[in-house]
Design brief:
Layout lengths: L4 H12 L1 H6 L2 E6 L2 E7 L13 H17 L5 E10 L8 E11 L3 E9 L5 E11 L6
Antiparallel strand pairs: 1-2, 2-4, 3-6, 4-5, 5-6
Length: 138
């Protein structure tokens, strides 16, 4: 089965994304303006409180945001992001981030990204606004 143009763009992005590779991110589902990705929390991701550093959930959500807002092959970069942490993340947790497009404008896009653990408990809620450059990825 041939890959969709959205999957081709995200595959190309992932090949170039050393940080998402280091996180261990796997692409689960890609559709126009949408992405769902997952990763496992490792010991080296823990902060001084013995829980996952907030940057881990943020980074997963940010990657889901990037894959969703770029998959139309229009290079898009973050203008503004914010996150609310709703539950602590532990070593061994399997996190999944789902990015849903709220607005797809000519020059901007707005996305809501929910991050869940393996028990379907929300651990973070991220909102991102992107700027569309008009340049193609591939």
């Amino acid at each position: 089965m041939e890959k969709s143009s959205f999957e081709k763009v995200t595959d190309h992005m992932m090949q170039q994304d050393a940080f998402s590779k280091w996180l261990g991110i796997e692409l689960l589902e890609i559709k126009e303006g949408y992405s769902r990705i997952t990763m496992s929390v490792r010991q080296e991701m823990v902060n001084g409180f013995g829980i996952a550093h907030g940057g881990i959930a943020f980074s997963l959500a940010d990657s889901a945001f990037a894959f969703a807002c770029n998959n139309r092959n229009n290079l898009s970069v973050a203008l503004d992001t914010n996150i609310s942490f709703t539950r602590a993340v532990q070593v061994g947790d399997q996190l999944t981030a789902e990015a849903i497009e709220i607005h797809n404008g000519r020059s901007t896009g707005v996305y809501s990204i929910s991050v869940y653990n393996q028990y379907q408990q929300q651990v973070a809620l991220f909102k991102g606004t992107c700027f569309r450059t008009g340049k193609a990825h591939i």
